[in-house]
Write a sequence for this structure.
């Protein structure tokens, strides 16, 4: 027996096949898009801490991933027997097929989106929070674009699966490609030739759409983008556009000026482990404070409480005499967000947004908060800040194209873009190679000279002595020493505490 090739080729002129192809494409695209959106909502609910959201959605995913599509399909198509009012839509094979594909795909897509969302580093959310961007803003601008990039290859794969699964809808008499083929071979019994043609139609659809989606995926692939550094001439043009950010330091000598920060009896525990044991600390406007101490003494935890990245259990933090942070149950969201806006934070691991250019990273917070400013205005100020940290030439690069030191300088510019009254630095040089430490410390030093109020957690002992007005040494969750660099170095009263801090500094340096 041999195949009837003439008949096989004639099947590519059958109009019904082309009509069926359109049905398959519309059904698949709709199922993919609706499934992706629904799947995203389900993934967010599944990740929620609220049990009434996470439990039902987990059950939904578990159920529809377990039941074969064919069963869902036949069940949905026959649903009007149970609920006659649904017959208007579910009695139509196309709608019954679409509903079945959507619920099944939503369950699969939810798992794809969940892994995408989980893949976005925790630091990204924290960086958004530190820029006082609200929950939905963080999701929209920072988390979702990154999660979708991670999910994209699996989602493309899912589209191919949907196209193939759409052939099952022939079971409820939808006139799709397989059904047209079945109709033909039931008349002439040329089964193999017809199924071969059916396969070619499916392969063609899958190939065309996979190519389009792979092209889109490539367009979204940030690591493959590598914009060049700008030339001196290009930098000069940008420099002309740059506009100074109005960041006049607060006049500390002004009469009646309250403390920039007052920490009162701050306590914080992780489970049974009390990390902060009642910290009292006042920081005057314009003061530079370094926090040093052995590993695990609570330095990072303390600085993170100052912009609400860690909740406090007890005490309060007052910002320029105004209510700011209180324990969770007493906390006023508005006070917290208003306060965070006045504080810039620089993290050990930079936490730049990898899907945004250097310039966009710096523009993101002012653009989000100041709806009255034009994009040009925000851009001009961002260019000014980038020039100030020596990175104007890298404005259009992505974070992955920069060295650690450069990334940290962008992070400083990003924090300064909010015109903060206080800057917090959490071990800003710990993740850097030794040769890059200097360039970051220089930027911090310049800020200190300009009168910026700063709290710096650092292991750079010499730097802390040279740049700070006061050095705080923490040990086991309490402030052991609070003194000026001069007192520490000269120790005029032969204080045992200062000897201890000198000994510690000697060991670390
Ligand atoms: N999210 C957390 N959950 C549980 N324990 C934590 C958490 N974060 C910090 N800790 C614990 O709190 C203590 C203080 O940690 P912290 O990071 O504040 O110390 P550190 O002084 O900054 O140390 P290092 O200099 O090594 O960064 C440590 O014992 C740490 O294990």
């Amino acid at each position: 027996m041999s195949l009837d090739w003439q008949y096989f080729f004639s099947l590519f002129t059958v109009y019904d096949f082309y009509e069926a192809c359109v049905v398959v494409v519309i059904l698949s695209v709709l199922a993919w898009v609706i499934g992706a959106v629904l799947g995203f909502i389900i993934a967010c609910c599944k990740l929620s801490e609220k049990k009434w959201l996470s439990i039902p959605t987990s059950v939904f995913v578990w159920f529809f991933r377990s039941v074969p599509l064919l069963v869902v399909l036949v069940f949905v198509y026959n649903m009007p027997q149970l609920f006659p009012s649904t017959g208007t839509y579910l009695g139509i094979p196309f709608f019954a097929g679409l509903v079945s594909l959507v619920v099944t795909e939503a369950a699969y897509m939810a798992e794809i989106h969940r892994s995408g969302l989980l893949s976005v580093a925790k630091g990204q959310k924290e960086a958004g929070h530190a820029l006082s961007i609200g929950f939905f803003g963080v999701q929209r601008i920072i988390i979702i674009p990154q999660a979708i990039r991670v999910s994209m290859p699996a989602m493309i794969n899912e589209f191919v699966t949907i196209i193939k699964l759409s052939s099952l809808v022939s079971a409820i008499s939808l006139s799709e490609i397989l059904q047209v083929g079945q109709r033909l071979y039931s008349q002439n019994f040329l089964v193999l030739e017809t199924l071969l043609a059916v396969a070619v139609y499916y392969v063609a659809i899958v190939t065309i759409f996979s190519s389009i989606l792979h092209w889109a995926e490539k367009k979204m692939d940030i690591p493959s983008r590598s914009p060049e550094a700008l030339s001196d001439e290009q930098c000069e043009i940008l420099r002309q556009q740059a506009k100074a950010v109005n960041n006049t330091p607060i006049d500390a000598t002004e009469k009646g000026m309250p403390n920039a920060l007052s920490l009162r009896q701050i306590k914080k525990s992780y489970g049974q482990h009390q990390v902060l044991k009642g910290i009292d600390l006042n920081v005057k406007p314009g003061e530079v404070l370094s926090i040093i101490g052995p590993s695990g003494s609570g330095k990072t935890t303390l600085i993170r409480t100052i912009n609400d990245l860690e909740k406090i259990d007890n005490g309060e933090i007052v910002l320029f005499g105004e209510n700011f942070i209180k324990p969770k149950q007493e906390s006023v969201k508005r006070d917290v967000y208003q306060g965070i806006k006045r504080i810039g934070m620089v993290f050990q691991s930079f936490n730049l947004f990898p899907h945004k250019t250097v310039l966009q990273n710096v523009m993101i917070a002012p653009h989000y908060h100041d709806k009255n400013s034009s994009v040009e205005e925000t851009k001009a100020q961002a260019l000014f800040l980038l020039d100030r940290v020596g990175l104007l030439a890298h404005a259009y690069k992505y974070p992955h194209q920069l060295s650690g030191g450069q990334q940290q300088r962008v992070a400083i510019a990003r924090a300064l873009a909010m015109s903060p009254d206080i800057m917090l630095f959490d071990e800003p040089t710990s993740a850097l190679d030794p040769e890059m430490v200097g360039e970051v410390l220089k930027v911090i030093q310049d800020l200190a000279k300009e009168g910026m109020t700063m709290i710096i957690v650092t292991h750079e002992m010499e730097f802390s002595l040279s740049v700070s007005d006061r050095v705080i040494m923490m040990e086991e969750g309490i402030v052991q020493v609070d003194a000026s660099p001069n007192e520490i170095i000269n120790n005029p009263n032969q204080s045992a505490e200062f000897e201890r801090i000198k000994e510690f500094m000697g060991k670390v340096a």
